[in-house]
Write a structure and sequence with these properties.
about 90 residues; 2 helices; membrane; 3-stranded antiparallel beta sheet; transmembrane helix; transmembrane; alpha+beta; 5 strands
């Protein structure tokens, strides 16, 4: 998890870790705090995408068995990559 110690703003540069960015080149940046609703929506969408890909690959009856596993796998992957903030 990122901490406030990784960020610094000097007179002309924004520093994150070992990377430096000129402040004059940064336009319209904003930080969004993700809420529980955002996380749940992301989990549902990614789970449905993975499940539908399985349905498109194998449209026969066996896909109905694997589609819930695809949904669970996609949802867990979305939870594992959840972030508190996004740009």
């Amino acid at each position: 998890m990122d901490s406030a110690q990784k960020f610094s703003i000097c007179s002309q540069y924004f520093t994150y870790g070992s990377d430096q960015y000129r402040l004059s080149r940064i336009k319209n940046a904003r930080v969004k705090v993700n809420t529980l609703k955002d996380h749940l929506l992301r989990v549902l969408i990614i789970g449905m995408i993975v499940s539908s890909v399985i349905g498109f690959i194998e449209p026969s009856g066996i896909a109905w068995i694997f589609m819930p596993f695809g949904f669970i796998t996609g949802a867990l992957a979305a939870l594992a990559t959840a972030r508190k903030y996004e740009l």
